[in-house]
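Q: How would the structure tokens look for this protein?
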Amino acid sequence: MRIGEKIRRIRTAKVMTQKQLAGDRITRNMLSRIECGVATPSLETLLYIAERLNVSPGYLLAEGEDERMYLKMYRIENIRRAFRGGEFEICRDLCLASGLEGDDEINLVLAECCAKIAKERFREGKLRSAVRYFEEAVEYAGRSAYDSGTIPAEAGVYLRYMRRISTTLGGELPGRKVSDGLAFGDPFCVYVLLLERLADRADGSEPVLPGYEDTSNLLAAHIKASAAMQKGRYHEARELLLGILTSDSTAPDPFYYNVFFDLEICSKETDNYRGAYEYAAGKVSLLERMLSEAES
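A: Here is the predicted structure in token form.
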């Protein structure tokens, strides 16, 4: 990219007019000629413009890989600032607009941002949006040499959970298969893995996974309720499940779908058919909201 075009792109990205950039050292007409490639700036003018744009003069002169390096140096700080500030959607947009496609660090940041956004959408019950961002996260992670497998592992667990709620939420994740063990750092993933292992145990004994002791009370209560149901202790399970609904603590919206689902079963097994009807209605209503909100 020629010098003039770089100057124009940076100036417009900073929402500066030619008059503002020109200042009192060069004319607006001269700056216009430089940006159009009609005139070549002197070294003194180049240093002045670089200072006004707050970029390295080396970037304006660089070509090829050197240009790419300077471009990354110029843009990475804003990306890092947004990421550290928890502004993951802004950070994602900055990465996509950076012009640094194929950069391992940028792809990893994109993967992290998409995973963070996906989890937030999941907590809000926006399931289709959550699926889309998890799939993006896995795609970007696969493009980065720094991918440790954690993002695909966590995404895989969340997606399995969501697809058990609704089969309309897509198919298998693209890319390589990774161990579920890489998802142990996420408390909700630990909860899902415990549920899956519990379902495989005929005696209903509660499985233990690393990090289970760190799982929030509501998630742990549901594990205990599920174990009680598997042992046929439906009254006990129902009390645990009702305790979840009346708790001051909160959990992701999709979690409550499974609580309603289990309460429906417990009510049927204890001949409380009115309760079963009410919990079934609550389950369906919540599912409809989660799917419809996600499409908006």
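The chain is about 70% helix and 0% strand.

The domain at 1-61 is CATH 1.10.260.40 (434 Repressor (Amino-terminal Domain)).

Upvote if useful.
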